[in-house]
Amino acid sequence: MRNNKNSPFTLVPYYLWIALFVIAPIILVVYYSLLDLNGNFTFANYQNFFTGVYLKMTLSSFWYAFLITVFSLLVSYPTAYLITKTKQKQLWLILIIIPSWINLLLKTYAFIGIFGMSGPINAVLKTIGIPEQQILFTDASFVFVAVYIFIPFMILPIFNALDKLNPALIYASRDLGASKLTTFRRVILPLTMNGVKSGIQAVFIPSLSLFMITRLIAGNRVITLGTAIEQQFLVTQNWGMGSTIAVFLILFMFIIMLLTGQKEKGASQNGKAK
Amino acid sequence: MEKLSKGSKLYLALVFVVLYAPILFLVFYSFNSGGTMTNFESFTLEHYKAVFDDTRLINILINTVVVALLSALISTMIGTLGAIGIVSIRNHKLRNTVLSLNNILIVSPDVIIGASFLILFTMVGVNLGFSSVLLAHVAFSIPIVVIMVLPKLQEMNSSLIDAALDLGASRRDILTRVILPYIKPGIFAGFFLALTYSLDDFAVTFFVTGNGFSTLSVEIYSMARAGVSLTVNAISGLVFFVTMLLVLGYYFITNRSKGARGSEVPK
């Protein structure tokens, strides 16, 4: 559709939105990262960030995000693959998506009960003779809940990529004598790499910034970048330091998006938006 | 096509069980008279009654729904007009820049959006409460609406507009009688997505809400931090029910408009 007549006035509120809620907040975060507690200009926050505490926290945040992404991928790829093989794949896909529409807080809250000392997991352990374990407030429970929350977001792009794959390519590969594993490694996986990248993008960046799950499930044992920002803004009221961490989180986000960025060609599922 | 082996079926079944078990677990214990999520004593509706008797909780529910509906409505209007404007931008560079700016809020982590909006609202002097939460929800919903509406606009044939112009339609007529009816499915999809984003949001709201105002997510967070309360389970039962209704409604509307698209003639 090419029509110039509507553009000037329909774009006014939209441009206003871009200026106020996209550009201004980024500038404000950068500006605040250069202020100390009294509002004076300083680089101290950045110096602070490169001291042991914050670097260690950043590393551990990346490590958890890495674990969450890897486990999500390991569960999601086979699931997405098997769903494309079912008869009513769209229906199964919707059933995967529905849990992601249930309020995030409620799903997390459910695990407080499930992992509790007298919850069903411990009850099962007991019947097979293992004494009660403290499952809640461990790293493993945190990773599990995060993976649980992110699985639908990983399955969706991988499913889209697999669904677009021409089955003739797989038959050709088989006809030419490739084993199932070779076909997967040399044909299916490379052709669905864009879906995997979108999935990684959709899981890794939010994993870095989780703060609600860390508080409820990991009981402050796990500090992610998100937890640190929330802490600085709402508890310590040190907006300068919080903004500095936010600046680094934004930088990491851009780097990850560059690394997982997609080339124009190929089966990119959000190609139209770019 | 090969048939699924037994092992594959088992794997899929396991994934679905794990996905749904926590939700059903919550709903199941919402009917427990025992008061904990451990042993089920007997069936009761008292926790649901407790939700409806708690005027504060009902107020929060109403707040949540009002914010969701209003923010979805406003963001759908701004987003749809914005998308119509974007497709008419001739300059490729400018268009790509606008689209990249559009996507920033979609990929930004909630914490960043929340923190930066908190700074913005405090600086401008917006009261933290209903207005700040509404503004924030409108802000993060607009790009989603744009993304849902754009493909519809791009597949629209420009000769439709030329024809309307030839037949003497005014600019307004073209917008309301040609463009909007054609992109209606995209608008509906955008509206529903904005609605669910708003209902589901926790982190952004948590940052920009003041002391006096709360939405369901924020309230559940503070209740969950205080420990297990079966009132939360009852809320999740209700949320599950409403979500299913929304999913069905969304499915119904998008399918119906898909079926009607071919025969739809703007009156």
Automatic annotation (TrEMBL), chain A:
It is found in: Cell membrane. It is a multi-pass membrane protein. GO terms for cellular component: plasma membrane. InterPro entries: MetI-like (IPR000515), MetI-like_sf (IPR035906). PROSITE patterns: ABC_TM1. It comes from the Bacteria. Keywords: Cell membrane, Membrane, Transmembrane, Transmembrane helix, Transport. The chain crosses the membrane at residues 12-34, 62-84, 91-115, 135-159, 199-218, 238-259. Residues 58-260 form the ABC transmembrane type-1 domain. Pfam families: BPD_transp_1 (PF00528). Its main location: membrane. GO terms for biological process: transmembrane transport. CDD domains: TM_PBP2. Belongs to the binding-protein-dependent transport system permease family. CysTW subfamily. This is Spermidine/putrescine ABC transporter permease.
UniProtKB/TrEMBL annotation, chain B:
InterPro entries: Bact_Polyamine_Transport, MetI-like, MetI-like_sf. Residues 61-251 form the ABC transmembrane type-1 domain. GO terms for cellular component: plasma membrane. The chain crosses the membrane at residues 12-31, 60-89, 101-124, 130-150, 228-253. GO terms for biological process: transmembrane transport. Signal peptide: none annotated. Keywords: Cell membrane, Membrane, Transmembrane, Transmembrane helix, Transport. It comes from the Bacteria. Its main location: membrane. SUPFAM superfamilies: MetI-like. It is a multi-pass membrane protein. It is found in: Cell membrane. PANTHER family: PUTRESCINE TRANSPORT SYSTEM PERMEASE PROTEIN POTI. Belongs to the binding-protein-dependent transport system permease family. CysTW subfamily. This is Spermidine/putrescine ABC transporter permease. It comes from Viridibacillus arvi.
